[in-house]
Amino acid sequence: MLSDYTNFTLPNKLRVVSVPMEGISSATVLVLVGAGSRYEDKEKAGLSHFLEHMIFKGTQKRPSAFEISSLVDSVGAENNAFTSKDHTGYYIKIQNRHLELAFDILSDTLKNSLYLEEEINRERGTIIEEINLYEDTPLYKIDDVFYDVMFGDTPLGWSIAGSKETVSNIKREDFLSYTKRMYQAKDMVLVIAGNFKEEEAKKLSEKYFSSIVEGEKEKFEKFEGSQEKPRVKVLNKKTDQAHLYLGYPAFSFHDPDKTALNVASAILGGGMSSRFFIQVRERRGLAYYVRSSTDYFEETGLIAASAGVNLHKINEVVKVLLEEFGKVKKGDVSEDELKKAKEFLKGRLALRLENSRSVAGWYAEKLLLEREIETPDQVFEKIEKITTSDIERVANRVFDENKINLAVIGPYEDEKRFLELIS
Q: 231-422 is classed in which CATH architecture?
């Protein structure tokens, strides 16, 4: 399954991967850049995200956002972009007979964006409203509160969108200097996934992306924080539902225990029959959503439970989540439960990779961040090898009672009550 791919490197050190997919008529062309919020200075927080918004706003060849969007719409294509802590992506999903147009537009916007003052000021207002949306939506805002607890006043702890103050201070010169510093071929990956002729994809890659400056891979400030006791952060807000994150620091995406931790996360909160869902929602009716997740970076990572819960039952929810983490740590995982979690992970991945956009993202992230390609089949093999002993071992490695982190949004003022709850 999707294990056949071709990869090569252009003379400017830009890495290219082509992944053929049968039975579809589309192709996705995606460029992933090693630029994200963890590469920013504090006073310019949000620059990576702001720049992502500006890429499709006009180039020398196509001077307005309308010209670019009209061209994309004229062939029924889809273009979009996204920003994370450690990478930024731009893609166009298009009918394969229009493949060259996707290469043309993406390369043009990445190399020749104008960053016009009037467009910057207009988009600044859009981003500030996006920030306002997140501030007014606890379901979204709780992510930022938790990463602040986990990573503090460091680039990993800052909001990807920045603040209204930092976004207001970003100028045209900042975009120009940032792209010159960060948007280098040596720290880019180009992936073509879908139904296409590989020779055509190779020629188009060479034609449109060979002229990007080679540059050097940019360095970032590594997170070196340590934790010796539980931490809590409460955002006091009048709400009808409390939102919380409860989690632990973990390890990087290079760590061989990553697969075991992903399986443990699936056991705890990976679906509607997971432990968190059954114990918190089905048996007690305390939450609408409850789930677990993992996140990994170059040098660190995390696993966390998140939930939207009854305001007056938040203490009970926290206790239940801690109990379930504790049970897994004690080795209370059956073979049947392990098997179900494995199949859950494999099934979700298989469904996700039916889409050329998702396939392109998979290969791009693997190569850019982890610096090697790992196929879905190879991941399936790793999942199958996980044992109950592996789950217990990684749980004891990660679920440290002295390293619990709790973030809460709700009508609460006393952080001490929550600190006592998790200590």
A: 2-Layer Sandwich (3.30)
